[in-house]
User: Fold these one by one.
Assistant:
Number 1:
Amino acid sequence: MAPCEPVDERVTASGDADAPSDRELIAAINAGDASAFEVLYLRYRDWVVSLAFRFTRDNDAALDVLQETFLYVLRKFPSFRLTANFKTFLYPAVRNLSIAARRKAERYQASEEALKRLENTPGPTGTEPSGDLEIVLAELPEEHREVVLLRFVEGLSLAEIADAMEIPLGTVKSRLHNALQTLRRDERTREYFEQ
Amino acid sequence: MQMPDHNHDEEALEASPRLIAALKRSSRASLFVPPTVDDAILHAARRHLAPQPKPGFKWLLFIRWGFAVAALAFVLAIAPKFLRRTGPPAPPDFVREDLNHDGQVDVLDAFALARELKSKVHPDLQLDINGDGVVDERDVATLAARAVSLGKGGRS
C-alpha cells in the first residue's frame, strides 16, 4: 500500500512551487503586510470552510466559523510564531468554533448522546452521502472519521494529527486502525483493500 | 509471547492509492464562500495590520497648552488692577476725632469719647486725642474744644 503523499504547503495551495511558504507569509504579516494575509487566507479558506461544514453540517454556520477562525488568526499578529504545519494550528480552532456553533444552534438538545447522534447523521442541506464509501464514512464515529480524513485527504502525519486534535499519538493510531478495520470489514468498502 | 510486528502495525495504518483517491473525491465538494465574507475578513485584516501612528512629540498639543498657560499668566497679572478699579468703593477715611463717623467733629464725638471712657477700662489708644499717651478726661476736653473750634464751619 502506498504511503500518503507529504503536504507541500506551496504546491498544494497555489500549484506554484515559487509561491511564498506559510512561514514567509506569516513573517510578512507580522511586519504589517495585509496582502500577505490575503494570500494566506485564500490559501486556506476553502479548507477551513470545508472542515467547518464537516463539523457543523450547516452552510451558514460553516461560513460563520470561517470568519471567526480567521479573525482569531488575525488577532495573533503581529507577534505570531508558526511552530508547526499551519493546518495543525488551524484545526483545533476550527473544531472548537464549530462545536460552539453547533451547540448554540442545537441548544435545546438535552443530552450529549443526542448531540452525538446528530453528529453522525447527514445534514439537511442536500449533502447526504451518496456513494458507498461516503455512507460508511458517515457511519464511523466522528473522531475516527476525522483521523481518516486528516491522514489521507489532508495529508497530515500521525504526529501532526495528534497535535491538531490535541490527543496522544497512540490514540491517533488506535482510531485510524479501528476506522480502517471498519472500512476493510464492511462489504461496501472491502474492495478498496483488495489487491 | 509473540513480539509486536511493527511493520504489520504500520501497514495496518496505510491505505491503498485507490482508497485515498476515493476519499479525496468524496471530500472534494466545497462550499461557496460569498465575496462579502472575503471582503469582511480582508477589511478587518487591513484595519488590524495598519501601521499605528508613532507617539512622537505632539507639537500642536504643546502649542495649545503653552497658549493656555500664557493666557492664564496674563490674566493673573492684570486682574488686580481691574479688581481695584471695579471693586466696591472703599470705605471713606474718617479723621480720628470723628468718633461717630458722621463726617463732622463736634460735641457728639466728645460725648462718644466720654461714654467710651466710662465703658472700658483700657480704651483704645487711637482715642488719645491730645497725644499724651493716656486716654482720659483731658482727651474729652480736647475733643470738645476742637469741636467748638471747628463748629464755625469745619468738617472732618
Number 2:
Amino acid sequence: MATTVGVVVFPGTNCEHDAVLALEALGADARLIFHADVSLTGLDAVILPGGFAHGDYLRPGAIARFSPVMEAVSAFAREGGAVVGICNGFQVLCEAHLLPGALQKNRGLTFLCEPALVRVDSTRSVLTQSATLGQLLDVPINHFSGSYTCDLETLRQLRDQERIVLRYVENPNGSVDDIAGICNEAGNVVGLMPHPERASSALLGSADGLVLLGSLLSASVA
Amino acid sequence: MVRSLVVRYHARVEVRLRPGIADPEGATIERALPALGFDGVASVRSGRCFNVELDAADLEAARSHAAELADRLLANPVIEESIIEVREA
C-alpha cells in the first residue's frame, strides 16, 4: 500500500502541487488538505509546503499557526507522525512551537531565489534517515525570511542532540550556525528552508530533493 | 435596565526585536542616515506599532487583555518583546 501524505494548503500556499507531483513520482498517494480541515485521519505523513500563508501578514506563519488544521497537525506530531515544513511550512512550525527558534529576515534584506548546496549533518530525522551523513545535496532556496535564529541554550541542545539535519555549505542568509534545517527531539518533525520538491527531476536542474522526500516516505510506511 | 459595564480602551502595542537580536532593517536605515546628511545618529532599531481598541471592565483587565494578545500573536517572544500602553479611548 502506498504511503499517504497530506499536503496542507493555507490561503497563500503556492508549492502544494509541486510537492504532490514530487511525492507521486516517488509512488506515494499524496492529497491536498485544506487549512480548515480538523482531521488528518488516514495519513502517514504531513507536509506543510512553501508559499505565503495568510499573506505572511504580521510574521510568516504567525496567522497560519491558528488555522484549524494546526491543532490536528500538533496532535499528529505528538503521536509520532512525520511532519515536514518546507520554507513557509518551517516558519509555521516554529510559530506553532513544534520546532524551536524563529526565522528572521535574510541578512542583507534580499529575497533569495537560487540553488543552494546543503550538507546532511544528521540522519536522525524522518527527512534524512535514508541519506548519508555528509552527503551534499543541491536543493534550491526561495525565501525572504530564512535566517534561522535561536538562543544559545537552544543552539547547544540542537547541536548536542544532533538535531541540525541540514547545513548550508555557503551560508546565503545569515542563519545561525549555517542552519538550513532542524528537527524536534524525536526526529519526526522537521523544518527546512530549501525546497526538495523543486529538485525532483534532472530536468529541473537537480533530483537531489528526492533523497529527502524518499526518506520521508520510507520513514512513514503505511 | 441592566447596562453593560464595559469601557472602551485604546492599547498601543509596540513590538520590537529583543536586544542582541540582529536587526538588518534598523542597520540599513542607520547606514543610510549619514548619506542624507543626518549626523550624530548613534543607533537605529526597527519595530512596529499596533493600535488596538478593546472593551474591558477596567484598566487592569484591559492591560492584561492587551498583554495576552501581544504575547500570543503580535510578538514572537523568541525574538521580539512588546511594550504596551493602555488608556481610556
Number 3:
Amino acid sequence: MALIWVILIPLLAAPICWWAGRARTDAELKVPLIVALLALLFDLVLVLNLFDPASGGGWWLAIDMPWIPRFGITLSLALDGLGFVMLLLALVLGIAAAWVSAREIREASGAFYATLMLSIAGVLGVFLAVDLFLFFLFWELMLVPVYFLIAAWGHGDAERSSTQSSTQSAIKFFIYTQASGLLMLLAIVALVWLHFDATGELTFAFDALRDTAPDGPAGVWLLLGFLIAFAVKLPAVPLHGWLPDAHTDAPTGGSVILAGILLKTGAYGLLRFGLPLFPDAAVVIAPYAMWLGVVAVLYGAWLAYAQTDFKRLVAYSSISHMGFVLIGIFALNIQAWQGAVMQMIAHGLSTAALFVVAGILQRRIGTREMSAVGGLWHHMPVLGGFTLLFAIASIGLPGLANFIGEFLVLLGAYKAHAPVAVVAALGLVLAAVYGLVLVQRSFHGPLEIPPTSDAVADATVDERMLLALFALLVAVLGVQPQLLFDVLGPWLDGLAVVIDAGVDS
Amino acid sequence: MSAVELQALLPLIVLAATGTGALVAAAFAERAAVPFSIAALGTLAALVAAVAEWHAPAVDVDGLLRVDAFARLYWALLSASTFVVLIFMHARSGVGPEQRTGETHGLFVLALLGACVLVASGHFASLFMGLELLSVSLFILIAWHCLMPRSIEAGVKYLVLAGLASGFALFGMALVYAEIGALDFAALADVEGAGAWWWAGIALLLAGLAFKLSLVPFHFWTPDVYQGAPLPVTAFLATVSKIAALALLLRLSATVGLEPGTPWWTALAVVAGASMLAGNWLALRQQNLQRLLAYSSIAHMGYALTAVLAGGAFGAEAVVFYTLFYAATTLGAFIAIAIATAAGTESNAEGATIDNIRGLAHRNPLVGAALVLMLLSLAGIPLTGGFVGKFYVLAAGARAELWGLTALVIVGSGIGLFYYLRVVTTMFAAGDAERFVASSRLIVALLVLLALVVVWLGILPHSAMQAARVVP
C-alpha cells in the first residue's frame, strides 16, 4: 500500500492546492505553496522509509491488484534501487520547483500548484509502474499537466507574443511526446500478442512479458518502438526539436520539472524496460545508439555555444549532457550504467539550479538576453558564485557529481567501443567553452543596465537556501558517489546478467 | 409471425408506435412537451426492452432481420443516444429558430427506427428499408431551420448526396442479385469464385455506406451539414447515423469473410488511410467548431474502419467499444458547444467558432471542464474512453499485423492533437463573457452524466469491454 500512497499523496494534494488558491489576501496566497511543500516533504519521508538494501536484487516492495481483467492489466507497482533513486530525485526537484515558484507565480497560484502536483504524481507513477499498460498510462498522463504548466504559466519569447509562443511550445512538446508514445504503445501491444500466442495468456506484466520477448529482427523492431518514445524524452538528436522551446518558454518551476525529471523518464524507461526486455536487440542496436549519443553530445554543445539567451543555452546544454546518458546506457556494462544514472542525477540537479538562476535573473532584470546584462558579479556576488559553481559542475569539474557521471560513462564506453569514447570526450571541451561563456557573458564585463534599480539585488535568503541545497547534493555525490552505487548495486548486477546473456547468444 | 419473433421485435414495434404517435401528438398538442414526452418515454422503453432481452437467444425473423446480441447491444446504444438527443432538442426549444420543436421528436424516433432496422438487417430488403427510413427523416431534420440559408443549404446537400448514395447501394444490391440470385446475407457467405458483377456490386454497396460514414472520398457533405444543421440534429447524425452504418459494415464484412488481399479489403484500407490523413489535415485550420468536429469525425471513422479491417472477433470487439466511447464523447462535445455558444441561433448563424469559447474555462468551469474532457477523449488521452478506444484500435491492428494502417492511426493522432489542443488552450485564454446562452439544469446534468460515462469508460472499462464481446 505504501507504494500507492507515494503516488496518491501529491494526487490528493492537488485539489487541496486548487481549493486553497481561491484565497485573496497575501498571507492566504501562500497556502497552496505550503500545502504543496508539505505534501512533497511527507512523500519524501515516506519514500526514504521504504529504503531496504537488504532485499538483494529483487523488488524491495511490490503490489499487484487486478484492474482490467479482460486484458490481464493490473495495477502493479514495484520499487527497487533504480526506482528508489529516481523517486528521490523527482521529489527533491519537485520541492525545488514548488519553492522557486513562490515568487514567480502570481496568477492563479492554486491552479499552478495543483498542476505541479499532478505532473509530479504522474512522474512518480512512471517510476513505479511495472505493468506496461500502467506505465504507458502514466507516461501519457504526465504530459497533460506539464502541457498546462507551459501553456498557461509560460513566459515565452520576448520577440513573439508571449502567450502564443508558450502555447506553441507546449503543443510541440505534447505532439512529439504523444505521437512517439503511441509507437511505444504499439510495440507494447505487439509484445503482448506475441506472449498471448506463446502462452495463451493476456498480460501486460513486465515480469511475464520478458520471458517471451522475441529475439532477432522482431526484437529489434519492437525495441525501436520503445527507443523512439524514450529518445524523444531524452532527447536524442534528431528528436530533440521540442526541447529548447519547451524549456525556454516554461515557467522556472516547469523548467526544473522538465529538465530535472521529465528528461530522466526516457533514460529510466530504457534501463527499466528497453534493455531487460530485448537484451539481444539491444546488443544489435548499441553501436548505432551510442553514435547517436555522440551526435547529441557534440551537436547540443555546439548549439549551446551559439545561444544568446541564458535559458536557451542551458536547454541546449541538456541535449549534450543527456547524450552522455544515452552513450552510457548502450555501452552495456556496469561502469557505464553507474555513470549514466549518476549523470542523470547530476544533470538533474545542476541544470535545475541553472534554470533557477535564469528565473531569478529574468524576474529581476526582465530579460534573459546575456548581451543585455553582463557585469552582474559586483552587484550579485552570491548569485554569480553559485552560477559559476553549477556551470563548472556541468563542465565536469572533479569533485562534483557530473564529473563522476561523465567519467564513468566514458570509461564504460571505452571498454565497449573505444572510438565512441574518444569522440564523445570532445564534448567535455565544448562544455567548458559554453559553460564559461555563460558565466562570462552574464556576470563579467561592463554592466549594461542601470545599477541603482532593484534589478541588481543579490539572491535573497530563500533563493540562497535553495541553491545551497543543490550545491550540497552535487558536492556530496561528487565526493561520495559510492552512496549511490551501493543503492544501485543489486539492480546493476541483475541487469548485467540479463545483458550478458544477450551478448552471448 | 410467431410470439417469439414478436417478442424479439418488441423494441422496433415500440419505436414505430412511438414515432407515429409523437408525430400525431405534435399536430394536435399546443406545447412541444407532449410529443417530447411521448418520444422520450418510447425511446426509453425501447432501450429497456433491448436490455431486458440481452441474454435471450438469437432470433431470425423471416430471414429479414437478425435479432441477436449484436443487434440488441446496438439497439440499446442507439436508443440511449437518441434519448440524449431528444432531451438536447427539447432543451433548446424556445432558443432561436428551433422554437417549434414538436415535430422533430417524432422524426428522431423514426430515424432511430431506421437505424435499428439497419443494424439488425440480415437481408438487402431490410437494409435498404432501414437506410431510407433513416435518410428521409434526416432530410427534414437537417433543414429544420427553414428560415436560415445555412440550414437549407445543408438539407439540400444531404438530400442530393444521400439520394445518390442510396442509388449506388441499390444498384450494388441489384448487381449482387444478378450474380448470386439471392438477397439475404447468409447467401453472401457462400459465394465462391465470384465474377466482376459481384465485386462491382459490393463496391457500389460500400460506396453507399461510406457516404453515411463520411469516409474520404465520400465526405464532402460532412462539414457543411455539421455546420448548417441544428446542433441536436448534428449530434444525432454524428452518432446514431454513423454508428448504425458502421455496425452494418461490421456485420457485412463478418458475413462475407473479409480477408486481406481481396479487392474490396484493399479498397477499404485505402479509404480508411485517406480518411485518417485527410480528416485530420483538413481539421487543422478550421475556425468553426462544428466543421472541426466534422473533419475530426472523418478521421475517427478511419480509425474505426482500421479495426473493422483487422477483422476477427477481436476486431469486432474493438469496433463495438469504439462506437460506445464515440457516442458518449460526441454527444457530450455537441451539448457542451451548444451550451457555451449561441450556435445555430439568429445571432450566430454561422455556427460555433473557436472564438466563441474563448475563456470558457473561466466563465463556466463546469461546462468548460466537460468540453475539455470530451476533446481529450477524442484525442485519445488516458483516463478517458477515447484512450481505451484508441488502444483497442492499435491492439486490433497489431493483432492482424496491419502495420501500415496502424502507423497512419499514429500519424493521424499526432496531427489531431494539434487542433484539439488549440481548442483546449483557447478555452483557458482570457476572454469575454458574451454569447452565452442560458441553459436548463437538465441539459447541464445530462452533460455531467455523459462526462462521467466517458471517464468511466476510461478508468473502469472492464464491464464495457465484456459487453462489447458480441459476434456480429
Number 4:
Amino acid sequence: MTRRLVSVIVPCRNGAATLPETLASVIDQSWPAVEIIVVENNSTDDSAAVARAALARHRGPWQVIVSAAPGQNAAREAGFSQCSGDYVQWLDADDTLGSDKIERQVLALDSSPDDDIAHGDWVWEQTVPNLRAPAGARLNLVIHAIAYGTREWRRCQHREHVVSCTFVTGPTTDYLLRLLADWWAPPHAYLVRRRAAEWLQEIRAWNPQMPCATDREYFTTAALHGFRFLHVPGANVVYSTRPNIDK
Amino acid sequence: MTRRITPPVRAQALAGMQLRLSTLPRSNDAPPLGDDHRFLLRQDRRLWQPRRGSDLKTMSSAGADMRILHELYARISYPDTLEQQAKIIAWHAPGLWEQHVTILRELHRLGEAGAISPVI
C-alpha cells in the first residue's frame, strides 16, 4: 500500500529555543511518510543549525530552506513551493502535534474524498512566569485573546509555570459560519489536501500584507470558496504562548 | 493568531480581509450563503466606544434574555470592533457562547440607534 506523503511546513524566525520540541513532535509521528521543511526567516539566533541537528534523526525527507522575504506568510509560501506531499501540515516553530495527529487526519481524509481539510481539537498552553498554584488547580484566568470554547484553565500537572485549556471544536455542519464568527483554532489543528493548498497558494491566501489573523483569512477563504471541512476526533495539537515570543 | 496587536491595527486588517473575501470566487458546488453568513461578511469593522449599561437598556429593543449583554458590554472600557466586544461579552457569560451572531446583531442595532458611537 502506498503511504500518502504529508509535508510539514515550519516557518521559523528565532525559534532555536522551541524548535527541538516542535520537530520532535513531527519526527515521532505514528504516520511514517512525512516530509519536513523548515523555512528559516531572518532569524538572529541559530535556528537553522538547531533545525538541522534536530532533523538529523528523521527517516523521511527534510530540508532547511531560507526565505529572506520578511514575514511568516512569505515563509509559508516559500515552504509550500518546495513541498511534494499529498497533504500539507502547517506548523509554527513553537507548537507541537499529538503523536498520532497526522495519521488520524490522513486516514479520515483518505476515506472521505469529498472533504478537503481536516480539523481537530486543541490545547492552549500559556507560560505564566509568576504563577503560584498547585498542579491541576482550576484558575480564573483572563486571557489577552478571546477564543470561543471552554474557558476552564488549569495549571499543568508537570510544569509549574504553565496553564492549559482544552478547546473541543467538535463536528459542525457549517464550518464557514464558525470561521466567520471567529471560532478560532490554530493552523496546525488542520490538515490540508494538496488540491486545496494549491488553490489557496495560487490566490495567496497566506496574505503577506496581513499583520494579524493570517490563518483566519487562510481558512475562511478556503471555507468560503467551498472547500469542505471534516472534524477528526482525537487529532490533538498543542498551541503554546510564552512571554517574549511573538507568534 | 499572531502577536499582541492593538485594536486599530486589528480592525484595519480585518476590514481588508473582509474586502478580499467579498470578491472571492466561490466554487459551483459551494453551499449557498444564508443571512448569518452575509451579515458576518458585511459586519461593521470600525472601533466602537461602549456606554453605560443603563443607557443601553433604555435604547435597546433586545428581549429580556439578552439584557445581560448590556451590563457586560458596559464593563468594557476601551474602544474595539463590535466583533471583539461580542466575544468579550460571551467570554463573561458562557451561556451566550453559541449566540455570537445574536450578540453581534444587537451591538450593530445599538450602533444604528445611536446608543454607541464609532471612534473617529
